[in-house]
Amino acid sequence: MQVTINVNGEDRSADVEARHLLVRFLRDDLGLTGTHWGCDTSNCGTCVVLMDGEPVKSCTVLAAMAAGHEVRTVEGLEGPDGLDPVQQGFIEKHGLQCGFCTPGMMMTARALLDRNPDPSEDEIREAISGQLCRCTGYLNIVRAVQWAAQHPAEAEQAPAQTAGSAA
Amino acid sequence: MTTVEESAPAPEPAAAPEERPIGYGRLRRKEDPRFVRGKGHYVDDIQLPGMLHGAVLRSPLAHARIVSIDTSAAESHPKVKAVITGATLEGLGLAWMPTLSMDTQAVLATDKVRFQGQEVAFVVAEDHYAARDAVELIDVEYEPLDPVIDARHALDPGAPVIRDDQEGRTDNHIFDWEAGDKAATDAVFARADVVVTQDMLYPRVHPAPLETCGCVADMDPVEGKLTLWETTQAPHAHRTLYAMVAGLPEHKIRVVSPDIGGGFGNKVGIYPGYVCAVVGSILTGKPVKWVEDRSENLMSTSFARDYHMHGEIAATRDGRILAVRVDVLADHGAFNGTAQPTKYPAGFFHIFTGSYDIEAAHCKVTGVYTNKAPGGVAYACSFRVTEAVYLIERMVDCLADELGEDPAELRMKNLLRPEQFPYHNKTGWEYDSGDYPTTLRKALDVAGYQELRREQAERRERGELMGVGVSFFTETVGAGPRAHMDILGLGMADGCELRIHPTGKAVLRISVQSQGQGHETTFAQIVAEELGIPPEDIEVVHGDTDQTPFGLGTYGSRSTPVSGAAAAVVARKVRDKSRIIAGAMLEIAPDDLEWEKGRWLVKGDPGNARTIQEIALAAHGVLELPEGVEGHLEATTVYNPPNLTYPYGAYICVVDVDPGTGAVKVRRFVAVDDCGTRINPTIIEGQVHGGLADGVGMALMEIIAFDEDGNCLSGSFMDYLLPTALEVPAWELDHTVTPSPHHPIGAKGIGESATVGSPAAVVNAVMDAIGVRHADMPLTPGRVWQAMHGGVGAPQ
Question: Residue B29 burial (CB < 10 Å; 0-12/13-18/19+)?
Fold first, then answer.
């Protein structure tokens, strides 16, 4: 079946089987491999993307169900002026190690901050509680989201200079 | 040489560029810009032209004879390119492969299946969905056999013989292994005032990295070269094993370990799926991708632990620990696939004497086969130091309970003293350095231990169950000295190459690879510290056997102790050469120069100097060099560690237990680690955080369980529970610094410390809360409730 999904602001179409999952559509058909896959049972959350602004687990959304909707992936986080504050926060606070859960965590964080610009620690933990991280023990993810909340615009300055600089 | 640093809370991040460390210190990771943009490059991200997809058919039974396999329907599927069975592989001599413990493992089953989830057939098809569809079309007839599930009955007379593929085998016994002095230990026990005995199970758990295992195999039929992108922690060792097993010439194999989504020991071994993908690529002439799903990962790849331990501790009435002995029954599953240095079939379990000054110790470990998945050394365990630390730290708490002593005071009384180092323990280890009492005192101070005990007493009066648990661990990591340590005959030394380009930019090639540890950052910092070249000017190349020197890989916390040492040594070689070249540039004897980070100065004339960058350019230029000195500025080394390193730490956990449900809430967790020299404190803290979450998970939630028929009950993340952000507290970290005296930069490794040290602290806290001597992990609400009400742990 032919589906058209608005992905990161662009309409993208493909001919897919009815059982085709959104995560496969993004990764295999569009080559957007920033969205990961980790469990197929909606437990790990490495596949989280935003659909119409809400976090969804793309391993349990059929591509056909996303047709006509707006999907935002990690590749759509960075704006023309630089990194999203959430991305910068993960760098600043060492909110990632292997990087596998990171895109899903960041998308959830983006959605949280969009509806609640100043979340408490408990609210952040609750927001990411449907997702697993095996590396960080979560504390630095919480701190990364807090950093993003405290720096809503700062990340958009000279993001390319971040690698290897002092933390 | 012991120094204790002040507490170092995480500073504000926004340091000015001029403050960035050229060397050790808090540095943002070089890896992060690609990861936060979704531009990491994991195995499953690889798309090659014409690439096919593989899927594995797995056994639904734990133990059964294969009567027949009918693949005709699968082969008729329009998108299927190949169906591979054990018979196919037998024709190639590949039906069985060696394990990392010198046993054999079926690649695809030929005679029997020996665990649920075992690989039976492999389908290669045009796409992922078609491969999975075709797997369903394969018809296998099985004749079920009685399984051996409970390791405690594996050696019963008449137990089904699992490994009847081995000529003459009549039982399920794998090995007996001992360490320590049995007679001396028995003698101490005979005269001890107090002996406490406790049985405990360290249950089967799973590392469960978020990225499952997988590969892309691409055999170029013209060049005869195999490129294998693999989720492996040990690319060089894998290449050599493929060469030895498959008969492929080693120089025609390239193993690439790209970005890896967590390893934790799960990605050390060679799995049947990798071999099948290689065979699939050879048979079809196309690249073949195979990526297992989560159930396959949990049910068939390397598990961890599964140690049934009978511990005994002997002490004087006034709390002086005299001796420890332990008898272990080790469940190794259907194939002995544990990964550890050859001479040590129980890994480094014999460091179970822990951090204490005792007179005698003895352990005996018996390994057995069961109808469960193979594996056993994984999950950040430092080659079974995890089991050892859990054993001794639980036994010390059992002793404290017996004596009515405070567990922290009992530990303080028995810890090794600084003047005893280097310390030779009773089972053969030489602990390199330590100041244990200082570290424990610091942890008690950070936790406010006395105040916690007062609060606990008050709460108890109100009927509230609060517990405080202490553990003190010593690890032995950084395997290891090649005279004693090898894996399948490959010595555990690691190579390293450093080249300084004419413009002063450097490329460091290391043998280990990263699964998230941040090697691209920390290894650049090691070189930066030695040479004064900014870390951003140092590219670290890793994870590709065509581009890096040989070495055994990243596991057992060995990257910094072994490869980190190699990086420092190779940088010092470059520095030594740069001195000669600087001398030629300044027309002065090299001995008249002195080093200041980044440049050589003329002694007594510090204005007269040459920077490392100037020297690099001159080394590639027309400068006349002293006789015997080659041009360019580069060096290689192979580092053979003289000893292992011994990171240690003191952990304190505070829990609240719901008296009505048995649910445990971890309220606080204080971790004071000593990993010697600290290269990047931010990365160290991250490693500790992750390990502490592992510890909470194992103590409270995680278990790979089986029913009596051998059905795996933990085959998805709905059943194998991992901690989320809601189950773990805001970790409280501190540290001491006691450098390793034999390591070039004094670093000891930190990757597994918290996973090793924390489960005992959590369990000790829960037992303290409910006033019970012991209950086995995982301390789920049901188990805690049972323990509180006089029952035992829930059935396995």
Answer: buried
